[in-house]
Design goal:
By secondary structure, the protein is α/β, with parallel strands linked by helices. The chain contains 15 helices and eleven strands. A hairpin with a 2-residue loop joins strand 10 (434-438) and strand 11 (441-447). The structure holds pyridoxal-5'-phosphate. Pyridoxal-5'-phosphate binds next to helix 6.
Length: 467
């Protein structure tokens, strides 16, 4: 399993050449898959592991499947679903971490790696306006796990009987609130927590698609009257479809008044806290009890890097700690992540963000999110100038738009027309945008997810759309 030293260097050099070539050729590579699923299956049939290939051949095989066998979401003209071009130092971090393979379940297994992640958690917490000394949290596999952590924590704090007795120990059905624009991970989370999917109460949005505090207040009162027990509100700072930021100060106020856990899902939009200019759009986030930030979205590190932040350490330990005779307890005042989150064996995912921050700094991220937001503004302006209608209202770089000429057609026909436009862009212009629905209406959606995108890419997109 381990080649000898000279051979190791040769293989590494082959792999690093492949990585360097990937970045060199990225702009000129097709975004759409070039190998069909049928061809992938046929190839896999040949690979039965009874014969072997050289390491170089294996690397080439993998790169071919990776680059040509699926959507190339790392491409600068992938205006898609928050899947970024990974930062180069994030890529390097993966190689280093995989090599040493530290275990982050318990502090005493790897104090340095655990301390790096705690340092990052406190840093991000500080940027969000939490007191870094009091805040806690952990890296997660992504936003879904971070949101699940928040719901479990809120449940455990609100219903102490649940820890031992489960849902059946509770007299009333716990329910929580989202909007129709909230990420659907909460549906799975309600199922996984044993709450049941009906425990997710969808609150009306206002005309700008923001969760309405007035409608929320009415829903809470109605649920109390019906004998249910509200425990959490999940606001979103940067919704998945339209980049909408819910009215965080008003929702924080309402949660404080009603004694509800206030969670802010800033999986993508949380990147804005790095910019002094954009941070104000997230005002009120500092009043959250818990915050989700996905470093693998706007912060552009490789996939598998989410973060859950909690205002204080209280609750995490009650929720996740267990007695483990085979894992020695660490000294006090250090975090054993196995007792503070869902995962057990943990990868040192935080190094991806650490190395990117060490080299780019806060200013590097600020410049990145500001540049992408400016590109969003430019796209909106150019589309409007050409008669397209922008249908979402956000300072973040997600642009949802439609052609007013389609207004007279029925929704199904509109959807077909927009889908075929998106497909043509993908096939003929090497630009990837998607179709989503807002207020039930089909619209085109373009999001700036790659830090490599520039004005020439906005022009390329406009040109394709006009054609
Ligand atoms: C992407 C996203 C999630 C889910 O995060 P994963 O990293 O995909 O698990 C949750 N909430 C929002 C707002 C998102 O955009």
């Amino acid at each position: 399993m381990l080649p000898e030293s000279a051979e190791r260097k040769k293989i590494l050099s082959h792999a690093t050449s492949a990585v360097a070539r990937f970045y060199d050729q990225l702009r000129d590579t097709a975004i759409m898959p070039e190998i069909s699923t049928a061809a992938v299956r046929a190839r896999l049939k040949e690979l039965d592991f009874e014969t072997t290939v050289s390491a170089d051949e294996a690397i080439d095989e993998a790169m071919r499947l990776l680059v040509q066998g699926g959507l190339l979401s790392a491409h600068p003209r992938y205006f898609g679903l928050f899947n970024p071009t990974p930062t180069f130092m994030g890529v390097i971090a993966d190689l280093l971490v995989s090599t040493v393979n530290p275990q982050l379940a318990a502090h005493n297994h790897h104090p340095a790696a655990t301390e790096v992640e705690e340092h990052l958690v406190r840093y991000l917490a500080g940027l969000c306006g939490f007191d870094p000394a009091a805040a806690a949290g952990s890296f997660t596999s992504g936003g879904s796990e971070a949101n699940a952590t928040a719901v479990l924590l809120a449940l455990t704090r609100k219903f102490p009987a649940l820890r031992a007795g489960g849902m059946r120990a509770l007299a009333k059905q716990p329910v929580f609130y989202v909007s129709a624009e909230t990420h659907h991970s909460f549906v799975k989370i309600a199922h996984m927590c044993g709450l049941g999917r009906d425990a997710v109460h969808v609150v009306e949005t206002d005309p700008d698609l923001k969760l309405s505090p007035a409608a929320l207040e009415r829903a809470i009162a109605a649920d109390h009257a019906a004998g249910q027990e509200p425990f959490l509100v999940a606001a979103t700072a940067g919704t998945t479809s339209a980049g909408i930021i819910d009215p965080l100060p008003e929702l924080a106020e309402l949660c404080a008044r009603e004694g509800l856990h206030f969670h802010v899902d800033a999986a993508w939009g949380g990147g804005a806290v790095f910019s002094e200019r954009l941070r104000r759009h997230l005002d009120g986030i500092e009043r959250a009890d818990t915050i989700t930030i996905d470093a693998h979205k706007w912060l552009s590190v490789p996939i598998g890097t989410g973060v859950i932040l909690t205002r204080s350490g209280a609750g995490l330990h009650e929720t996740f700690s267990v007695d483990t005779p085979y894992i020695p307890r660490s000294e006090e005042r250090s975090t054993d992540y196995l007792h503070a989150g869902i995962q057990w064996t943990r990868r040192f995912a935080g190094l991806r963000l650490f190395l990117t921050l060490l080299t780019a700094g806060r200013a590097g991220y600020a410049a990145m999110v500001e540049r992408q937001s400016a590109l969003g503004d430019l796209l909106r302006q150019e589309l409007r100038a050409r008669g397209w209608r922008i249908v979402n209202n956000t300072p973040l770089p997600v642009v949802c738009f439609t052609d007013p000429a389609l207004d007279s057609r029925p929704p199904d026909q509109r959807a077909t027309a927009l889908e075929s436009l998106a497909r043509q862009l993908q096939e003929q212009n090497n630009c990837w945008i998607s179709v989503t629905r807002l207020r039930g209406e089909p619209v085109l959606r373009a999001c700036f997810t790659s830090y490599l995108a520039g004005e020439e890419d906005v022009r390329g997109l406009i040109k394709g759309v006009e054609e």
